Structures are given as structure tokens and as C-alpha cells.
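New here. Your pick:
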Amino acid sequence: MTSPDLVDSAAQAAASAERPGLLRQLSRNPSVVFGTVVLLVMVVLGLLAPALDTLDPAGIDPAWRNKRPGTEHTITLPSGQELEYVHRMGTDSLGRDLYSRVLYGARISLVVGLAVAVISIAVGLVIGLLAGYVRWLDGVAMRVMDGLMAIPGILLAIGLVSLWGAGLATVIIAIAVPEIPRVVRLVRSIVLSIREEPYVEAAISVGTPLVPILYRHVLPNTIAPLLVQGTYVCASAILVEAILSFLGVGIPPETPTWGNIMAEGRVLFQVFPHNILFPGVFLALTILAVNLLGDGLRDTLDPRMAKRF
């Protein structure tokens, strides 16, 4: 008689043989390449912002407010030395260097997107696995998820931020909560289809406990869809964080984010459009890159679409 472990190993080996060179396939997908390159650039800009000739993003200089891109500014260092500095993206209405604020704002947007994706997928995966496999829990869990999905995500996030106060952790949780039901429904649909497979029924017939069944047979089938879903959640979280900051209910104004930079510049947009143009371009490129990466992963990991590449 063939042992369950041997069957699992054979199935994994067969799956690997059918999909050779996954990294090679990903590298041949233009959407994956473009999305990865742009995201890496944004990560590098955010992490290395202090070393990229930036100023204090919160430093106020009213004498140099609303300067256009390319304006030169003589800065006196604490040592008394004078330094010629070029405001590459201009300054805002408080005289803060827009180039420095945009680069530092990349940190917040990327952290929020990644954190929301990880939290929503982790929580949604657990609830979805249990709801899809434990029949009596399915009804209760899905009615709660339906109730959360009935509330517009942005309104739910605004309500949670209003209750708990503005801050990075609060914004991450407020954005993650509306995303969890979408992940739960995805995982549940996968589990409902997998639980009817012959190898799962065989594992149940030989008395395999619930946890090993979920870990060995069900969980591996959710990895590829969750990777794709995670990219869309990340892009949505970055956009929602910018909306919250733009509305003044997100990250506090003293912390630079692309949303509150645009919020502060909207009053003088017709006269000084650079206050919204530069953070808007960075925000749009980042969201586009994440969405294209998700599309590329879906096309490559989905067997029905992988034949194109």
C-alpha cells in the first residue's frame, strides 16, 4: 500500500515537472518585469532617501514657500557653511522641500501597502480555510463577512480612524479590515472545490486529522491565488491611504505621505500645480506597477493562461 507521504511527494514532483522554469516564465512576462522594476525603484528611493541629497521633510522655511521646480536656495548649515541647494520639485506653501517630502512619503505608502496585504491575507486565509472546510462555521463566518462587505471600504476606514485616532498603525488596521472579507471569499471558494477532490476524500477515509489535511492538501492550492490577490490588496491599500490622507483623516500632516502632500497643495493647484503633480505621478506609477505585477503573476501562475508565454 502506498503511504500518504509518498503520494504527496509524487504529486509535488509531478506538479514541478509540469511547470519547469517558473522564474524564467516570470522574467519573460513584460508586466511582471515592469512592475518589479518600478517597485524596486520606489523601494530604493524610500529606503535611501536620507542619502539622496534630501533635506528635512518637515523643515519649514516661509521665505521660500511655493517656489517652482529648479529654484536654487542658499542654505546655512549648523557649522556656518553656506550650501547651494536646488529644489528639484519646488517647495510647498510652508517652504518645505517637495523632493524630500515625496521621497520620504514613499516609505509610508509602501509600508501601508505591504502591511495591509500581509494582515488581510493572513487573517483571511485562516478564516477562509475554516469556513470552507468546517460546515457549521461556514454560515456564521460568511454572514459576518457579508456584513463587512455591505459597508463601503473607505467609509469603514474613515469610521475606524475617527474612533481610534490618526496614526500609522490605526490606518493600517482600518484599511485591512475591509479587505479581509474579499480574501476570505477567495480562499473559501478554493477550499470548497478542493475538498471534493479524490485525494482529500482518501485522506479523510484513512482518518487523517483536520490540521494535516488543511496543511498538506488544501493550503498549497491557495498560494498562487493569494499571491495575485495580495498584489491587488497592496495597490488598493496604497490608494486608500492616499485618499484618507487627502481627506485629512489618515496619517498626521507632519509625516509626509503622497496623500497629504497633495491635500496641502490642492488650494493653489492652478497657480502651483507641482505640489500635486509630482506626488500624483509617484502614486500613479506605484499603483500601476503593483497592478501590472498582479496581472503578470495571474497570467503566469494560472495554467489556463500560462500557455500564452
Q: What stands out?
A: The CA atoms of residues 246 and 263 lie 5 Å apart. The first helix runs from residue 4 to 18.
